[in-house]
Design a protein that fits this description.
By secondary structure, this protein is α+β, with helices and mostly antiparallel strands. The protein contains five helices and four strands; from the N terminus they run αααααββββ. Strands 1-2-3-4 form a four-stranded antiparallel sheet.
């Protein structure tokens, strides 16, 4: 309600504080800083983890490749590996990794393995095969490897032995391979 007429209050203009004298408006508290430190730490951890996983995968692949690649570094090693795969393990697929691709002359060794299997069946025994006296004569990309094969078996409680001298011809293409094998006379 307005003041009565003639009152002093009505004649005095309303007093207002000039804007420059007003108190500054209340400042809202600053928002918390964004979590950049946490984000940076998480990014670094994720990057290190990713690099570790990739590095571990590559290392695992290289170790697996090295462990499963057959050793064909020398004539004697390739003959030893071939004999182990062919005569001892009876693994033709593995033996082929050590043999020449172009018409290998290993028929005498195939006949020997068949003969040994027939003897094992006929006498009801297991034939033990080993070899020794491995000597190699290298001539450029070819080498002859002489090996003494030793056969043993227990027949009717008696240990029996046999020895045979063999000569294997090997060839170096990218790696050494067995190309032929013949029994010496």
């Amino acid at each position: 309600m307005p003041p009565p007429a003639g009152s002093q209050v009505s004649r005095v203009p309303a007093q207002r504080t000039p804007p420059e004298e007003l108190a500054p408006p209340a400042i809202a508290p600053a928002p918390p800083p964004p979590r950049r430190r946490l984000r940076t730490v998480l990014t670094v951890v994720a990057a290190v983890l990713a690099v570790s996983c990739v590095g571990g995968g590559v290392t695992g692949y290289l170790l697996y490749d090295r462990a499963t690649t057959p050793d064909r570094s020398s004539p004697t090693v390739v003959v030893d590996s071939y004999l182990r795969a062919f005569l001892v393990d009876h693994n033709d697929v593995r033996a082929d990794l050590f043999a020449c691709d172009d018409g290998t002359n290993l028929e005498q060794l195939r006949l020997l393995r068949s003969d040994l299997a027939a003897r094992e069946e006929r006498f009801g025994t297991n034939m033990s095969i080993s070899w020794g006296n491995v000597l190699a004569e290298r001539d450029g990309n070819k080498a002859e490897v002489r090996v003494e094969l030793l056969f043993s078996a227990r027949v009717d409680g008696i240990r029996q032995y046999d020895r045979q001298s063999w000569t294997f011809t090997t060839r170096l293409d990218e790696v050494w391979r067995v190309c032929s094998g013949v029994m010496d006379d």
